[in-house]
Design a protein that fits this description.
With 274 residues, the chain is an alpha/beta fold. Helices cover 45% and strands 15% of the residues.
Length: 274
């Protein structure tokens, strides 16, 4: 999915919501554990319920790998189900890969050829040769970790060099020499608030994947105030706040309600730039 197609979906559905499929066997409703594939059963119901309100899904690989081969099979089935039944939805594999060049090439082949997802989260720490293999795939996106929503982001990402440039700023500035606004996005946590201004100063037109809304306390209003651009330029992710809003048999209906509430807020935001 290219940028034009993604933007068209955002304005057509009046939503820039990404639903995070962080599916934990210890948190899903207990009645699903009797199913042959409880992870996929949960995902399928969540997807069917929330698809009208979002433009993207983001399965987090850690939650699937934790279940061993059964979890990987569930991930693959989830991607296949999305591609078959909801082909207009943007699929992000949240795997945070990144290694020396030949290893990154294998990760790229795994996610862009074998699973055929639209985008992959990638860690930039090892530099350009660890990122370039992902950027070689036409029509695929690299989503680079830049400024994350966790408390530990202050340990490294906000440290400054002698010229006063923060590490996350250097990552964004440097990486724009590797890719462009058609194949490179950045992860910027919703909890970072006004720092979106700093991000937009360096990357004024790039798409941003924004985790941290909902359970982590990020503000959608603040994200939009400082991060929104003329073609939106945002994919705002909510995981726990949607998929675990209920642990009863009505979990899918409640998830749909939570997704709908966010979509309605996003519709109001988008109306201001239409």
């Amino acid at each position: 999915m290219n940028r034009k197609e993604l933007t068209q979906q955002i304005f057509s559905k009046k939503s820039f919501l990404c639903v995070g499929l962080d599916t934990d066997l210890k948190k899903i409703p207990q009645h699903l554990l009797d199913d042959e594939d409880p992870i996929f059963s949960f995902n399928k119901k969540i997807i069917d319920a929330t698809a009208p309100y979002c433009v993207s899904y983001k399965p987090n690989l850690a939650f699937y790998e934790a279940a061993g081969i059964k979890g990987i099979i569930a991930f693959e089935k989830t991607v296949r189900y999305l591609k078959q039944h909801y082909p207009s939805h943007f699929i992000i594999a949240d795997a945070k890969r990144g290694d020396i060049g030949n290893t990154s090439a294998m990760y790229a082949r795994t996610f862009f050829e074998e699973y055929d997802v639209d985008a992959l989260t990638v860690a930039p720490y090892m530099g350009d040769d660890s990122i370039m293999p992902f950027l070689e795939y036409n029509g695929k996106w690299v989503i680079l970790l830049a400024l994350t929503s966790n408390k530990g982001s202050y340990d490294f990402q906000l440290t400054e060099d002698k010229n006063g440039e923060k590490l996350f700023e250097k990552v964004i500035r440097k990486s724009q020499k590797w890719g462009d606004e058609q194949n490179l996005m950045f992860v910027v946590g919703a909890t970072q608030g006004r720092m979106f201004e700093d991000v937009r100063r360096i990357a004024p037109n790039s798409f941003l994947l924004v985790p941290g809304i909902g359970a982590q306390g990020g503000s959608l209003e603040e994200v939009c105030r400082f991060g929104l651009i003329k073609d939106c330029g945002l994919l705002v992710n909510s995981s726990r706040g949607i998929i675990y809003a209920s642990s009863d048999k009505d979990f899918a209906e409640v998830a749909a309600q939570k997704a709908s509430e966010l979509q309605q807020q996003m519709e109001k935001v988008l109306s201001s730039i239409c």
